[in-house]
Amino acid sequence: MIKGTGKLVTLFFIAALALGAYFYGFSIGKSEARIVPIEGVQNIQVGQPEGADFSLFWDAWAIIQEKHANKDSLDYQNMIFGAISGMVNSLGDPYTVFMDPEESKQFQDNISGSFEGVGMEIGIRNRQLQVISPLEGTPAKAAGLRPGDIIIQIDDTFARNLSLNEAVSLIRGPKGTEVILSILHEDWSETKDFPIVRDVIKISSLKWEILEDDIAYIQLFHFSEPAIRAFKEAANKILASSVERIILDLRGNPGGFLEVSVDIAGWFLTKDQVVVTEDFGVEGEEVIYKARGNGRLGDYPLIILMNQGSASASEILAGALRDHKGVKLVGEKSFGKGSVQELQNLPGDSSLKVTVANWLTPNGDHISDVGLEVDVEVEMTAEDFDNELDPQLDKALELIRDL
After folding, report:
1. Staple 8 to which of 27, 158, 277, 372, CB 3.0 to 4.6 Å?
2. Catalytic site residue 375?
3. Can you tell me the distance from the alpha carbon of 182 to that of 396, in angstroms, rounded to the nearest whole number?
4. Rounded to two decimals, what is the model's pTM?
5. How far apart are CA 308 and CA 380, in angstroms?
6. Any catalytic annotation for residue 187?
7. What is the pLDDT of residue 43?
8. What is the pLDDT of residues 347-401, one digit of tens each?
9. Is there a contact between 198 and 17 (Cβ–Cβ < 8 Å)?
10. Interior CA angle at 176 toward 175 and 180, to 5°?
11. 397 touches 212 (CB < 8 A)
12. Residue of 93, 109, 323, 375 with catalytic role
């Protein structure tokens, strides 16, 4: 979560290679990244934790400085960066990340709209680098990558022990260049290589159509800022049409702005119903986000489609509609991204992104690494993908006819 002045808006991403780098769940202001400079707190004496001997670090530093065979060429700044990275990595939290000046600049460029990459979100689950979602209309999607695919190798580098930072640095790159990903899917017996040519990524927010004369089928690809207007336009057209039921497809939607999920939830919930709660732990206060819309779509029978690529803001919206309205979730269990990160600038243009809170559904469910269980599980097989079949949508259509 990025903090600073003004109203907070929480952004939930896993690792957006679609944008040429990576994002995690954090808060930003309405127009620019809201960041806490570290200068205001760097002189606070926090004290040495009991049982931690900081002299050990300096002893090791001194030995390297004195005895290393190439001590004349030691890069002390990189040693400091490496020490901080090691400290952060020891937490075992893939969403708490140290970024050196180059990585910090890439991060800022990406949230300002400079997007080149392969077009997918990645995350770490069970110590494995996984595809969370290939984004619609991107090279990753065109190559045939699927949610849940395990990335075994990136070009010549094995991915098993890579951090998200390291994986992103290897996969990202300028338009026109190629990266080869060795992928293992759960129903494959061996890996397959996917050569992917990087490109400029343009992310669509939403598209919709009317199925079977009276069912609105809305595909929400991303909780980006333009999605607010796109959803409003679609909702108004639905209200003016003969539509009687709605299927909301959140499959492969990796997240986006919390404020967008709250805004869209407001089309289905009554004003002031809780959408999501941020839990800052024993020493912090909860922050509650409530619906503030008109609820004009609230009377339409609704089914939500989800899969392993549905994460963060997708899970927030689905969780809120499930808890308040009993909306059925169809497809596969969601990814399970239920934490919030804060980004702080450090001296020398580096930065630290640290997990500061967990978010809870209105019923108080914490879904990190658990995800949202679906009410009706429908698997998409390799044959379904190859033959462009969609049994999950077929099941949703079957079920919604009875609502």
Report:
1. 27
2. no
3. 33
4. 0.74
5. 11
6. no
7. 45
8. 999 999 888 888 999 999 998 889 999 999 999 887 887 788 999 999 999 999 9
9. no
10. 105
11. yes
12. 323
